[in-house]
Amino acid sequence: MKRIPALMLAALLAAAPATVLAQATNDASKVEGGHFTLDKSHAKVVFSVNHFGFSTYYGAFPDLEGTLDFDAKAPAKSKLDVTINVAGLATTNPKLDEHLNSKDFLDTAQFPKATFKATKIDVTGAGKGKITGDLTLHGVTKPVTLDATLHGGGTNPMTKAYVVGFDAKTTLKRSEFGISTYVPAISDDVELVISAEFDRAQ
After folding, report:
1. CA nearest to 68, candidates 115, 118, 21
2. For labeling, which of 38, 98, 101, 166 is most exposed (least CB within 10 Å)?
3. CA 1 to chain centroid
4. CA 123 to CA 70: how far, in whole Å?
5. Going residue by residue through the chain (202 aa), what tens digit of pLDDT does each one get?
């Protein structure tokens, strides 16, 4: 067996990531539609608050479920439903997680889930849009608008599934959902950063 020269091997390894990335496109005109389910292993909602004016504190809701009916030719006609396991929040601090799950904050014993159901989608540019929907959190339902961006669509080179991925951001006031402990020392505004991949149903 011939040995592969070190320089050639290094070149092949360097080229491999580009080959993988070439499977996805962020050109909205080339993305395919269909019925999709959320890939739980590649989806997360990250939240942040101003902590007593000293820092920005981060946590996450890593346990999500959802469906997307994506109309590639008319994105505004797409449908999106997502359920968040609020009780599964993670800050890497077990005591803080316990406190956030308590009646002082999210009261997940009574309200373990949150849901978001899109009611309107406005296309604002190439691969960009505003997704307005009803967010139910802590037993309160209010409209929330997400600034969404198409991250990419294409065939996953590992699973061979067709995937579309999106990023989104929004800011909500937690007091409007009945979660007002320590406001304003811990900010009323909560910033949400969302990233999610959806696999097309076979």
Report:
1. 118
2. 98
3. 48
4. 13
5. 445 455 554 554 455 555 555 578 988 889 999 999 999 999 999 999 999 999 999 999 999 999 999 998 899 999 999 999 999 999 999 999 999 999 999 999 999 999 999 999 999 998 999 999 999 999 999 999 999 999 999 999 999 999 999 999 999 999 999 999 999 999 999 999 999 999 999 7
**Tokens encoding 141:** 């339902």
Which CATH number, 2.40.128.110, 3.10.450.40, 2.60.120.10, 3.40.50.2300, labels domain 6-200?
A: 2.40.128.110
Q: Which one-letter amino acid corresponds to residue 178?
A: G
What distance lies between CA 193 and its chain's CA centroid? Answer: 7
* Biggest distance spanned by C-alpha atoms of the chain: 69
CB 197 within 8 A of CB 168: no
